[in-house]
Amino acid sequence: MKKEIGKYSFGVGDRFGHQARAQLRALVIARDEGINITPVWNKSYREHTIIHSRPEETRREADRAVQELGWQDAYFVDADHVGLKTVDYFLDSCDFFTLDVADYIGKRASQSDISNFVESNKKFIPKLSIPGIKGFFDITLLQIKKIAGKYLLAVQEAGRIYRHIAKRKQASDIIIEVSMDETSEPQTPVEIFFILSALSKENIPLQTIAPKFTGEFHKGVDYIGNVAKFQKEFESNLAVIRFAIEELGLQHDLKLSIHSGSDKFNIYPVINKSIKKFDVGLHLKTAGTTWLEEVIGLAESGKDGLQVAKEIYAQSFERMEELCKPYLTVVQIVSEKLPSPESVKKWDGLTFASTLRHDIDSPQYNPSFRQLMHIGYKIASEMGEHYLVALSDNEKVIAKNVTENLFTRHIKPLFFELNYLGECK
Ligand SMILES: [Zn+2]
What we know:
The chain is an alpha/beta fold and 425 residues long. 49% of the residues lie in helices and 11% in strands. It contains 17 helices and ten strands. The strands form two sheets. The chain has an eight-stranded parallel barrel with strand order 1-2-3-4-7-8-9-10, surrounded by six helices. The protein has a two-stranded antiparallel sheet with strand order 5-6. The protein is globular. The chain binds zinc ion.
């Protein structure tokens, strides 16, 4: 039987592999309140390399959480952002693969492949009308050629990665996502339609696709951009996917995946309303939000935990440039807004926690501070045992923050009715 990802799924990234239970607890609360969401523990090659962890550990932690909490439903471990060079590292432990082909966007496929693609899509010229989108799109031969020139090679690369995985894994046991988010330009709904058309020809059992949306999706902070414009584009993408499932014979439950999705509080209500309006599913990836809750928990605990949190900040401040490097397209820190490590040294736990916590109503909340801490997990990793012992010593307060953050600030506004008042118990 095919393993199903379900309509709603949630990427619960966990840098240090200690919070799987606290994360799963948030999904248990959601389930008890009537919304089923499949947990997916996602961790990229980039994160594993920085932390020196392995996918086996992510798998072990996920399995353990599922067992201890008696979770009976599906769950997955995501080889997040892999290519041919890195996928082998994940094959044994993962059952969700995010094929990252963004580096191939803009590189040209062979002329004959482009011609074949154009030929097979001529039927959509001159007008493409998609139920749910007002009016129609004008489609020209030149436009299809252009899209093929830009995206066909990337789609073919996704096919190559998938076929490599399929030598070792049964299609029915795995979930395949294709990601094109870490690139400079967003894809338009029409481009997404033709990308899906190309993907359908690669025979990839595609379950989710992660495009780049307009606006900025920086790590761990709110969406920056025009919310109304995002809504229009997002709804068009949903309409395209719903239409493509029928028209191109894709998986019946194909859905959009939103990366760097955590903490995009200003667009959560739009996402919530839109997926219900179109009756389609959603996958949303979070990674840094849980790591930041760990630090918030440490700060709140006072004493030793707070010292560890301050130490991470002081070193992150010193090594900001180096830490930013792997995240250049997804963080935007305003250095002038950062407090000096000397002043942070004098802070109490509450001040540290409320400067870091993503509570837009709090006058102390500082997005630059939060983003720097977001990428500061490398420092915590270098602390090794010192950091891990602090996690264990303060497990209770950390777990409470992790669960509450995921349920109250993320899951509730994304999936529940917007007037739902349930609290995290
Ligand atoms: Zn991504």
